[in-house]
Specification:
single chain, about 120 residues, mainly alpha, about 0% strand, 7 helices
Length: about 120
């Protein structure tokens, strides 16, 4: 819950406590993705890359390894993605200029007549 609500320090502390109680074997690979996600969101890219590479190695051939590889790819292209989004020009159409045209439904066809003569 703390992670979802953006309380990253609290989320990391909770995960650290759970890891100390249950170890690596109890938690699924999906729980491990929270560390790089938090590091990614807080600008700690080098730390996130290390954790993602660890997930890819430790949980190879799992869906989480695939997700970690995707996150690593995004992280490696972070500057390119941020530059693109920064330069993106978005123009909203003024509400009073939007025209809604009514559409008429397609006429119903008789399936027997549409099949043709038998």
């Amino acid at each position: 819950m703390a992670f979802i609500e953006g309380r990253f320090d609290e989320a990391l502390a909770q995960k650290k406590t759970a890891d100390s109680l249950y170890g690596d074997k109890y938690w699924t690979p999906s729980c491990s993705i929270s560390n790089p996600s938090i590091s990614f969101r807080t600008g700690q890219d080098a730390r996130a890359k290390g954790v993602l590479n660890n997930i890819i190695t430790k949980f190879a051939k799992t869906p989480m390894a695939t997700k970690a590889a995707t996150l690593l790819d995004v992280l490696n292209r972070r500057r390119q993605i941020e530059d693109y989004l920064t330069k993106l020009q978005v123009t909203r159409v003024p509400e009073d200029s939007v025209v809604i045209t009514p559409t008429q439904p397609a006429p119903l066809q008789n399936p027997i007549a549409a099949a043709g003569p038998q």
